[in-house]
């Protein structure tokens, strides 16, 4: 039975209403998307860093266009059954661009979109040099995003990057304004202590997202601890591509040094299971059904 985009969005909104934290792995290409989709997560997160890196081989620094990203949204969401929140950067321009982006991401199958208050060109979270636009400008973007969605279950995730450059109080002030503008989920990026996480959690009574980045600015806490602090969604955007990059470096180094992979074979995902993950059994069944 196929899963519709509408049912994915309904499921995600209902899941947030349960007040139990959702853990969402970062997906960045079709292999990671299909792997995560097969494992029973309630939500997946399309990471901007990983998607731009894998698709374009570029840093997540405002270089990817709307066309680049909506292409990936359509591929990822079309090939999976799990609700997915997709990184929409700054909305790729002004208010008209934001409306176009929300419509495009929704049509492409996303269950939600993350929009941030950085200046263009944006920079990846947990990296230096991030600057934010005026609060009033981002409020207008959130209002336009809410007005532009066709499905009220499509989640608008409002992210502020103000903590790093302007402090936590300003970040909280902005998050409050974005909530009043109609955001469904608030995302205060890069809090730098458990005390800051607790303050964010105690300030808002609505779904809150926390960004868990290995090696980033925010303390690494277990999901149950984050739930106690008031968070509804913990995303792990970098975990997958950092693990894959390490595995690739190791096996390619083995090939270079030893001219083969005998020493690395035990650490590889089985070829037969990869064939199954990618859907080859259906291809083989089709071939048998239509054999001469």
How does the SSE layout of this entry go?
Blueprint: H1 5-17, E1 22-27, H2 30-37, E2 44-46, H3 48-56, H4 66-78, E3 84-87, H5 95-108, E4 112-116, H6 135-148, E5 155-160, H7 162-166, H8 168-180, E6 185-188, H9 194-203, E7 208-211, H10 223-229, E8 233-236, H11 239-258, H12 271-277, H13 280-289
Parallel strand pairs: 1-2, 1-8, 2-3, 3-4, 4-5, 5-6, 6-7, 7-8
Describe the structure.
- InterPro entries: ICL/PEPM, Pyrv/PenolPyrv_kinase-like_dom, Pyrv_kinase-like_dom_sf.
- This is Putative carboxyvinyl-carboxyphosphonate phosphorylmutase.
- GO terms for molecular function: oxo-acid-lyase activity.
- Pfam families: PEP_mutase.
- Keywords: Plasmid.
- By secondary structure, the chain is an alpha/beta fold.
- It folds into two domains: 5-238, TIM Barrel (Alpha-Beta Barrel), CATH 3.20.20.60; 245-289, no CATH class.
- It contains 13 helices and eight strands.
- It has helices at 5-17, 30-37, 48-56, 66-78, 95-108, 135-148, 162-166, 168-180, 194-203, 223-229, 239-258, 271-277, 280-289; strands at residues 22-27, 44-46, 84-87, 112-116, 155-160, 185-188, 208-211, 233-236.
- Strands 1-2-3-4-5-6-7-8 form an eight-stranded parallel barrel, surrounded by nine helices.
- β7 (208-211), α10 (223-229) and β8 (233-236) form a beta-alpha-beta unit.
- α5 (95-108) crosses α6.
- The protein is globular.
- The two termini are 30 Å apart.
């Amino acid at each position: 039975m196929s899963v519709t985009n509408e049912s994915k969005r309904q499921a995600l909104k209902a899941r947030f209403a349960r007040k139990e934290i959702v853990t969402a792995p970062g997906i960045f290409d079709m292999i990671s998307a299909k792997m995560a989709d097969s494992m029973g997560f309630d939500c997946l997160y399309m990471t901007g860093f990983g998607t731009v890196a894998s698709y374009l081989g570029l840093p997540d620094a405002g270089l990817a266009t709307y066309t680049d990203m909506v292409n990936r949204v359509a591929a990822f969401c079309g090939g999976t059954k799990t609700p997915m929140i997709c990184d929409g950067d700054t909305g790729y321009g002004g208010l008209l661009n934001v409306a176009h982006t929300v419509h495009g991401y929704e049509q492409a199958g996303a269950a939600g979109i993350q929009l941030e208050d950085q200046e263009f060109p944006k920079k990846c979270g947990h990296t230096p040099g991030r600057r934010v636009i005026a609060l009033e400008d981002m409020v207008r973007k959130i209002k336009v995003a809410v007005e532009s969605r066709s499905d009220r279950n499509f989640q608008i995730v409002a992210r502020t990057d103000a903590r790093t450059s302007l402090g936590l109080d300003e970040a909280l002030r902005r998050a409050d304004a974005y909530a009043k503008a109609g955001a469904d989920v608030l995302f205060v990026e890069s809090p730098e202590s458990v005390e800051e996480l607790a303050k964010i959690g105690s300030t808002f009574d609505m779904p809150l997202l926390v960004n868990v980045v290995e090696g980033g600015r925010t303390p690494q806490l277990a999901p149950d601890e984050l739930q106690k602090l008031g968070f509804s969604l913990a995303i792990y955007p970098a975990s997958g591509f950092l693990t894959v990059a390490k595995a690739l470096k190791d096996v390619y180094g083995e090939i270079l040094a030893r001219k083969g992979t005998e020493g690395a074979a035990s650490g590889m995902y089985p070829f037969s299971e990869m064939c199954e993950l990618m859907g080859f059994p259906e291809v083989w069944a089709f071939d048998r059904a239509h054999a001469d």
